[in-house]
Amino acid sequence: MNEITLRDPSVPAPRLTGDPAVLRLRAVHRAMADLRRGTPVLLDGTRGMALLAAETAGARGLAEFAALTEGAPVLLLAPARAAAVLARAVADDAAAVALHLPRALLDPGTLRQLADPTAEQLLPAVPQLAPVPINAAAAVALVKLARLLPAAIVAPLRAEAHALAEDWALERVAAANVLAYPLEMAARLTRVAEARVPLEGVPDARIVSFRGPDAGIEHLAILVGSPETAAAPLVRLHSECFTGDLLGSLRCDCGPQLRGALQRMAAEGHGVLLYLAQEGRGIGLANKLRAYAMQDRGLDTLDANRALGWGADERNFLAAATMLEELGITNVRLLTNNPAKVDALRAFGVAVRRESLLFAPNGVNDGYLATKAARFGHLFG
């Protein structure tokens, strides 16, 4: 039987060091996970604020938040959501709007109603505007990174918060690291695994997985033939779409674009489809379903995202540029109707020529495609 040797408690534990960038990313990743489970996190350490996501706040998380903080808490909302809650216009050029939130309203049901426009609205009182705290942008960005509704309660830390945070093993994260996280993660993607995976109609296919240093979500590259040897292979940046790609949803054109792009590459003999983990233009599957619910109430794709507190498009295409660099591909013919993808890759140093990828409306997605053209600038001509 193997023996387990316990460390002598009288001997100080060794001080571990590591790549500072990895440690920064790890702290943000852990903070995201804590917010998803309804646990407060400390933003900018013990001299800053406590932060709790409104969507996941439960009785225990709220009790911990109350014990950590002093003064009046505020609710941070995206401008479009704040305007709906206040029933009046607010400036929409800020990352967040702050609302006074009496501690009497700090209950899970009220917070979810304030955060979620798809919830039944039975608020006991309309909150009032409050000064926007320092690092509000980072607070909302962290909740969005956790793929939660962009709504958070924050309050200053009390003097004894340091000891409580140590006892409860709460995560501390710097605001600057939160704001840098998306681009830093995308720039540090590395290849993890590769295998030959013959596909229907595309027998000569390989899949390469890429992962960031936080070991979180993975992006995939589907390689058809040997695109690394082509002068300018066909390339598609395809953001994952569970409903369209897997279930064949008629609400979008994602499934036909996915399969159509692979067929084009197979016919030509080579190509790369980058399957990016950016569901719902970067807002995640749960929030995309909420956006669908808002569309069923009459909003288009763009306004539905904004009503939830998200931007029109939250995607980050540096991940795609990093993957192409890892694959040794610098000159591409991009299968897309979206000029923003062309501009993004060019900004990251990739030579791009656009080629259209057109499919007719199916009778259900007609309005969706019209919105893409009118409000997102997609080219269908």
Structural commentary:
The structure is a single chain. The chain has helices spanning 20-36, 59-68, 79-86, 108-115, 136-145, 161-168, 175-187, 242-246, 254-268, 279-282, 285-296, 301-307, 318-327, 339-347, 366-376, and strands at residues 41-43, 49-53, 74-77, 97-100, 129-130, 151-156, 172-173, 190-196, 205-211, 218-224, 234-239, 271-276, 331-335, 351-355. The chain has 381 residues and is α/β, with parallel strands linked by helices. It has two domains: 20-181, DHBP synthase, CATH 3.90.870.10; 189-278 and 315-376, GTP cyclohydrolase II (Rossmann fold). Strands 5-4-3-6-2-1-7 form a seven-stranded mixed beta sheet, sandwiched between helices. Strands 8-9-10-12-11-13-14 form a seven-stranded mixed beta sheet, with helices on both faces. The termini are far apart.
Largest sheet: 7 strands, mixed
Shape: globular
CATH-defined fold name of the largest domain:
DHBP synthase
Structure classification: alpha/beta
Global mean pLDDT: 90
Question: Which architecture name of the largest domain does CATH use?
Answer: Alpha-Beta Complex
State the CATH superfamily name of the largest domain: DHBP synthase
Number of strands: 14
Percentage beta strand: 15-25%
Number of domains: 2
For the terminal residues, how far apart are their CA atoms?
A: 72 Å
Q: Can you give keywords for this protein?
A:
381 residues; alpha/beta; DHBP synthase; Rossmann fold; 2 domains; seven-stranded mixed β-sheet
